[in-house]
């Protein structure tokens, strides 16, 4: 199986399947490690949802025997922006229009329009090698805001062409056909070739303000399509995640990364009992200073692993209700490890480039961190234990 990806000079050393992190004092042993594709970089764009879900789909294609296929994230981003613009204008500006989104946004595009490879549509124009959507986001928001106010009394019926032209200018025009395995295919034919079925995947959450085992519209701003999520107790949410890995499936994760126990730089996210002094690793701080490199701390004597707070369903609900836990960021869970105390951690593939930390762009999130800060997950239906599927009635 793929070993945890780290450079030889990093703080992890891989010997007989065990890795030691000399910063966090955890010694990890691999339990499950799902083969996946390389870490990508969303850079200065609010498109983590597209990167995480695309990585999840690429990993599914690997599981299905297709080999490594590099899919285009920006194909999904461009399509979502068009649909967001239509919704925003039709709702007279009373809907969310932002770069953010959810895992199902990618599935909607695949279902309706297909998907393309990164080679066919990179979304990088004018010689750029990294995504920077600051200007694009401002222009698009200005366009839809002016149109939705409708001061002339009647909207120009061709207004959407202006939005599409802006997207074409900044991201490039979408090809009608592209080459894959020596054949010219359309985006929809490409999906048919891979036999990938977006209807095989479901989103699941865990909150007490709605009945368990029913679907409800998750109340987060980036759920701009008002999709429903299945609701289960948090113990069963974790059971689904663990069962997925035992069956060879990975997990697309949506959650909060603004907590003080989250450190992308250190490669660990926990819920410590003791108060943490430093706060780093949020997506916003990443954009504010993408070039900043934290100085490496000197190696210290090995310490005891800090004890974590045990998270209950009530803790989780309170965090959501008070906006402590919000849908900051989507990432891709690709494996499970255990530390020297037998505590589970989840190998997490981020989209901040493979040189964004000393661990190849990956980090470890603890079981308690997931219990508290997971907003939702997306998994294959077959990655759900049968007893839980029966309760969900699908």
Summarize the structure.
By secondary structure, this protein is an alpha+beta fold. It has helices at residues 48-63, 73-90, 103-112, 134-149, 159-171, 187-194, 234-246, 283-288, 313-321, 367-373, 386-392, and strands spanning 14-15, 18-21, 26-33, 178-180, 183-185, 201-205, 215-217, 228-231, 251-255, 262-263, 268-269, 329-338, 344-349, 362-366, 374-380. Strands 1, 2, 3, 6, 7, 8, 9, 10, 11, 12, 13, 14 and 15 form a 13-stranded mixed sheet that branches.
Provide an overview of this structure.
This protein is of the alpha+beta class. It has a single domain, classed as Cysteine proteinases (Cathepsin B, Chain A, Alpha-Beta Complex). The protein contains 11 helices and 15 strands. The strands form 2 sheets. Strands 1, 2, 3, 6, 7, 8, 9, 10, 11, 12, 13, 14 and 15 form a 13-stranded mixed beta sheet that branches. The chain has a two-stranded antiparallel sheet with strand order 4-5. Helix 2 packs parallel to helix 4. The N terminus is likely disordered.
Secondary structure tally, helices:
11
- Structural class from helices and strands? alpha+beta
Query: Quick one: CATH class?
Result: Alpha Beta
Q: Tell me the number of structural domains.
A: 1
Give a quick set of tags describing it.
394 residues, Cathepsin B, Chain A, two-stranded antiparallel sheet, globular, disordered N terminus
Secondary-structure map with pairings?
Elements: E1 14-15, E2 18-21, E3 26-33, H1 48-63, H2 73-90, H3 103-112, H4 134-149, H5 159-171, E4 178-180, E5 183-185, H6 187-194, E6 201-205, E7 215-217, E8 228-231, H7 234-246, E9 251-255, E10 262-263, E11 268-269, H8 283-288, H9 313-321, E12 329-338, E13 344-349, E14 362-366, H10 367-373, E15 374-380, H11 386-392
Parallel strand pairs: 6-8, 11-14
Antiparallel strand pairs: 1-2, 2-3, 3-12, 4-5, 6-15, 7-8, 9-12, 9-15, 10-11, 12-13, 13-14
Helix pairs in contact: 1-3, 2-3, 2-4, 2-5, 4-5
